[in-house]
């Protein structure tokens, strides 16, 4: 059905590391809504907001196309999708880094040592740009998960993956050698919102900023 009053549509991750903090942020903004695990969207009861639950990788494209007006996603996913211009503001959670790592016993002095190496990653764009800026040519192998096991199964001599505590690298006999990119969750928006939606967005951002100030 068509809403009788303007509403803004926000895409958040359905289930994963961003989900709980995204939902908490919306709730702390004083916005009430029902959730259930099988529902893919929900309408707030006291604010003109509809929430869509998606895979995080799909969020930048949906916001770019205007299927969703707003999204909450990691900068790593946003920049890898080639859509950094959609970012409005950092949200202060899901902080992590995209790092290069090599087997613990391997020698490593500088990024130049990666010349000609096979590197497994889920972030070929961010890593490719990083290496190109430094004049390093490597063979990037794009895999979508379990990147950390690539060296031990002979698929690559190095990896580039998301790190937070570092315990996954440690557990797989790897040593972090370069930080390629620092990331946190960000609010993103479609670039041609109607005036009515821009007004709702302003109210939402005002509340989000108040929540962040109160948390400090
Ligand atoms: O299903 P969907 O596609 O929506 O989710 P997903 O599996 O692609 O993403 P998810 O939920 O794992 O992560 C969502 C976002 O959280 C990422 O895009 C990052 O912006 C952010 N984030 C923060 C992390 C981590 N911390 C993190 N630690 N994403 C992944 N990890 C992985 C890391 O790669 C490692 O394999 O968690 C593992 C443990 O990390 P350590 O260093 O603490 O051991
Ligand atoms: Zn994903």
UniProtKB/TrEMBL annotation:
Domain of life of the organism encoding this protein: Bacteria
Cofactor: Mg(2+)
Record bears the keyword Glycoprotein: no
Catalytic function, reaction form: 1-(5-phospho-beta-D-ribosyl)-ATP + diphosphate = 5-phospho-alpha-D-ribose 1-diphosphate + ATP
Principal localisation: cytoplasm
UniProt pathway annotation: Amino-acid biosynthesis; L-histidine biosynthesis; L-histidine from 5-phospho-alpha-D-ribose 1-diphosphate: step 1/9
GO-annotated biological processes: L-histidine biosynthetic process
Function: Catalyzes the condensation of ATP and 5-phosphoribose 1-diphosphate to form N'-(5'-phosphoribosyl)-ATP (PR-ATP). Has a crucial role in the pathway because the rate of histidine biosynthesis seems to be controlled primarily by regulation of HisG enzymatic activity.
An annotated GO cellular component: cytoplasm
Entry's family note: Belongs to the ATP phosphoribosyltransferase family. Long subfamily.
A Gene Ontology molecular function term of the record: ATP binding
Protein name: ATP phosphoribosyltransferase
Top EC class, one word: transferase
Cellular localisation: Cytoplasm
Included range, full protein: 37 to 252 of 325
Species lineage: Bacteria, Pseudomonadati, Bacteroidota, Cytophagia, Cytophagales
Domain ATP phosphoribosyltransferase catalytic residues, every copy: 55-209
EC number: 2.4.2.17
Entry keywords, A to Z: Amino-acid biosynthesis, ATP-binding, Cytoplasm, Glycosyltransferase, Histidine biosynthesis, Magnesium, Metal-binding, Nucleotide-binding, Transferase
Regulation: Feedback inhibited by histidine.
